[in-house]
């Protein structure tokens, strides 16, 4: 089982699109694949599950979801603190495994644990009760159930992102070619390396995924070359801009199922193949 986190502290760089489309290719290749959505915006959840995972003020959030899992984690601690609880009651209230929060997507081999817009409200309680390793432990229990796990993260270095990095084997960094993204990249990499040193020595940066890459434009070429010259792990497979991505989102169809022969689909396939070569 290989777990990848897709993470960038900057929003709007294509995290959810990259998460879902790589996961969909993984599933299409025959790998039993799970997407875990830790971003309260729930873009990955909505991409794969459509209206069921699309929330509004007058529509309840899809359950079970990842917020329910972390609620269980907190509830476990609280139940254990009650003096006089019978052993049977304590065992009964123990947190469920992550498999209890999985939804099947419409696509073969591809499952989802959806996000919740209320997830962020739990962060302080989880931090104060030192639950930072709970996701890692829960993922270890899924060994044998899945071949590949992809975790979408919020655009911030917070409890949930740190939990994902602690739980993961690899981290992918989406990057769009502008000066502000380049400046933020160094802080992001420092945070990842610090997590590696303090919490997860098996974590590695699998690569920087250049998104919205316009190969005929001068600035993107210069920015990418600067990253390579500085020794940063820029992946060779880059993702071009295309309006088909909006259609893919609108139809809740990852590209591999929407337009197999499209140039962007082929770019994602090349990216997936490059990552899989690294994992051998």
UniProtKB/TrEMBL annotation:
Q: Which domain of life is it from?
A: Bacteria
Give the signal peptide, or none: none
Q: Give all residue intervals belonging to the AAA domain.
A: 5-205
What is the name of the protein in this document? ParA family protein
Species this protein is from:
Acinetobacter faecalis
């Amino acid at each position: 089982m290989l777990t990848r986190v897709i993470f960038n502290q900057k929003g709007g760089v294509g995290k959810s699109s990259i998460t879902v489309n790589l996961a969909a290719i993984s599933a299409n290749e025959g790998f039993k694949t799970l997407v875990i959505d830790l971003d309260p915006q729930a873009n990955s959840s909505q991409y794969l599950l459509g209206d069921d995972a699309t929330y509004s003020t007058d529509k309840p959030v899809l359950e079970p979801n990842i917020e329910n899992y972390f609620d269980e984690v907190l509830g476990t601690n609280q139940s254990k603190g009650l003096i006089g609880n019978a052993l049977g009651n304590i065992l009964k209230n123990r947190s469920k495994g992550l498999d209890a929060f999985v939804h099947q997507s419409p696509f073969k081999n591809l499952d989802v644990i959806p996000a919740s817009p209320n997830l962020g409200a739990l962060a302080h309680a989880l931090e104060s009760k030192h639950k930072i390793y709970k996701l890692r432990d829960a993922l270890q229990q899924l060994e044998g159930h899945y071949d590949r796990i992809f975790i979408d993260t919020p655009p911030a270095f917070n409890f949930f992102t740190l939990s994902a990095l602690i739980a993961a084997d690899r981290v992918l960094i989406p990057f769009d070619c502008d000066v502000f993204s380049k400046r933020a990249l160094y802080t992001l990499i420092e945070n990842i390396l610090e997590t590696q040193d303090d919490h997860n020595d098996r974590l590695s940066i699998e690569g920087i995924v250049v998104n919205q890459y316009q190969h005929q434009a001068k600035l993107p070429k210069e920015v990418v070359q600067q990253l390579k010259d500085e020794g940063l792990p820029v992946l060779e497979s880059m993702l071009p801009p295309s309006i088909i991505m909006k259609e893919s989102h609108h139809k809740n169809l990852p590209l591999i199922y929407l337009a197999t022969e499209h140039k962007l689909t082929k770019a994602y396939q090349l990216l997936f193949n490059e990552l899989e070569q690294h994992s051998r």
